[in-house]
Every structure is written in structure tokens, then in C-alpha cells.
Amino acid sequence: MSRIDAPVVAVLAVRDGIAPLGGDEAVAEAGGAAVLIGTGCAAAADQLPPLRRAWCAEAGPFAAGGFAAALARLLREVPRVLLPGSPDGRDLAPRLAAELGRPLLAGAVRCGESTTDLVRWESRLGVRVETPAECVATLVPGVRGALPADAEPELSTVDVSVSGVDAEVLEVLEPDPATADLAEASRIVGAGAGLAHGELSGPEAVAELGRLAELLRASLGATRVVTDAGWAPYERQIGTTGVVADPALYVAFGVSGAAQHVGGLGEPAHVVSVNTDASAPMTALADLGLVTPAQPLLAELLRRLAPELPAQARAEPAVEEHHA
To answer: What is this structure's pTM?
Structure first.
């Protein structure tokens, strides 16, 4: 098996042709060079716009220990190895660092030739450290862009031998939206300060929104005002000082749309805004704007989606729609 000789390479664990969360960003940080290992690697390459040069290793189902040993033999000559901070990436990275005998820089938002920027304390603190001459790093998904390459990627196949004792994967479970990292959530319902206007207190209204999130198989998010007030935990905060998310659907209840909050939303495919202010920035950004108090609409949604569960608020909302 030949070794790869490059200054920096991204490593992506591929499952059934699906590129991991943050894979495109890791490839962009590596200058377009990547090793894809797992099943369906060629199909996953089509999902990575920044890709310029790829080595595809069809190595079978994910096995962190076996993959790490096989990749170490392939990447001995590569000084910097980057992995996305996806679940498989976080599992594989420390094993690969151990196999290569290198330090692991976990939770990086940038890994440069001389310095690396890391986040700590649930992304509330940034730390800049010196980049070791040889290292392995994981990159936090959703915090940097990934510009497409200007040409078709060059793909080649590499043979790897995965052997040895490894943990047996019994089942892959979908993440629970209630506890999943917001950066990985495909649906988010967001709580803003306007959600507290009505019969329910702020904590009670956020609890009701959590019930709605459960019914929609969505995750609960919040603005900084809501988390600072203690109505939701800080790991639920979306924004430049919180979690950077990129959901397919974002439903904002009483969220004004401050720049600090919108800056952490990425580029949702669909946005719905519930707000009494038709001119609110969030309403202007939305595909669908519902100009109505948040609490009565929340109660009506709960009544319709779960009629067997008693709702705390029952007022019938008067809704005016604004389509962006």
C-alpha cells in the first residue's frame, strides 16, 4: 500500500455513500485533498464541492480501531490530518492520533500551518495554540464556509487492509432531537423573548415549545436573551456567541432576528417566523411569516398535533400570513 505525500489531508469516514457532517468544511480546510474511507466513497465524493484530489478506500462498515490502523500506514508522510467533528470523526480521530503518535487538537475552528484556533467551554471560549509540526485535528462543523473547486476532482482508489479486534457495531441509532447537538439538527424550533408575552411565563412557554419540538421530531433552540434568563440551557443558544447551526427547517417563535442570532443560523432551506411585528428582521428573512402572538399559536399547534395532551394555553390565534 503506497503512502500519501501531502502537507495536509482531510479524512472522512463514509457510510453507504453519505459524506459526514462537516465533511465539505474539512476538505476545504485541507485545500481540497481528502481520503474517503468506508462504503460508497465515490458516491460521497459528489457531495463535497471543495474536493480537488481524493483517495477512495472501500474498507467496509465503520470500524474505528481498524480504520485508524489502516489509515496510519497510509498517512505517515502527511504532517496535518484533519477530520470533521462528526460522531464518526470524533470516534476515529483519537485512535488515529494514537496510531500516528501525534497530538490531537480537538474542537478546532481553524487549523493553520503555524497556529490553530480551538473552542472550549461549549464554544463560549476561543483559544489559539501553536500548531505542532505533525498533528491530528477535528474541526467543529458549521463554522466556516466551503467554496467549490474550479474543476472536477481527481479520484483514485487505494487498497487498505482493515484487521484486528474492534468494537462490534450492533445498531446505528438516530440521534434524539431533544439532546442532539444543534449543529447536527435538521429541524429546529427557536424560542425568542417574544415567546414570554402571554398567559405563560417564559420558562412555561419554553417548556411548551419543547413539547412541540418533540412532536415535530425537532430540536429546541433559543436566543441569547432566553438562555441568559435561564429559560433554556446555554447549549441550546444559537448565535455567534452560541452554537452555529444549519438546519433544513427553522421555526422561530417570538425571535426578532438580531444579527448575533441570525449569524449562527447558517443557511436554512426553510424559515418560518412567528412574531407580532411584521417588520421584524426574522419575518423579513422568512419564507413564511405568521404575524400573531406566539403563545396562542403554539397552543393551537399542540392541540392539533397532540389532542390527547392538555395544553396550558387555549386562545384561538388570529393569524396573518406574510410570504417572503
So the answer is: 0.69
